[in-house]
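Quick one, tokens below:
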């Protein structure tokens, strides 16, 4: 994808950004848990599993935070699908601004939640803070669902043209991270050149 080449202290540095072909599911590290359902049956089973009543489901439709007996805070999740997909909090500003509401928007396809223990760990005591965290989690989840997960690589070649060292780092969710990835790749590559020069100076 993006590639950059420079000469640095007599070494050629080449960096690039590539798509992560085997990204980790965000479910493994997000502060909130996401339950997206692909059928009414799946949705009904999820509701039953989480102890959500009919009234609570209606509240999710209306964009409210609900709390079943398990103590978790729950918020409805909708989906916009037109080429790619974007998940959002139901009845949020992002939802209301989505184009083609009649055809491309499903207002409630699941829910996002955070348990009491997770809220204590994250220091979340207000529902507004929970919703802000949930929105951020859904952005990451949407990036993953669209395959928008990336990594950086660098390659350093010595004066002889041979590869002297190389490295990579993966798991950046969302193309908005590309500037940071480019900086990280170049910074790490220059540090590697510094290590090579020290080794050469000390005869290692």
């Amino acid at each position: 994808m993006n590639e950059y080449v420079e000469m640095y202290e007599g070494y050629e540095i080449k960096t690039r950004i590539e798509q992560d072909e085997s990204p980790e599911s965000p479910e493994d590290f997000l502060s909130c848990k996401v339950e997206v359902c692909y059928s009414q049956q799946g949705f009904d089973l999820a509701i039953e599993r989480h102890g959500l009543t009919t009234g609570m489901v209606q509240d999710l439709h209306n964009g409210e935070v609900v709390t079943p007996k398990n103590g978790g805070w729950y918020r409805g999740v909708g989906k916009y699908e037109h080429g790619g997909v974007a998940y959002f909090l139901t009845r949020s500003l992002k939802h209301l601004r989505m184009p083609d509401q009649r055809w491309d928007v499903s207002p409630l396809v699941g829910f996002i939640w955070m348990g009491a223990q997770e809220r204590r760990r994250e220091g979340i005591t207000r529902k507004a803070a929970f919703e802000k965290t949930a929105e951020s989690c859904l952005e990451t989840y949407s990036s993953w669902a669209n395959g928008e997960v990336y990594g950086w690589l660098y390659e350093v070649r010595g004066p002889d043209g041979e590869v002297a060292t190389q490295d990579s780092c993966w798991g950046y969710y969302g193309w908005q991270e590309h500037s940071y990835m480019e900086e990280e790749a170049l910074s790490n590559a220059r540090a590697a050149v510094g290590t090579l020069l020290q080794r050469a100076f000390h005869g290692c």
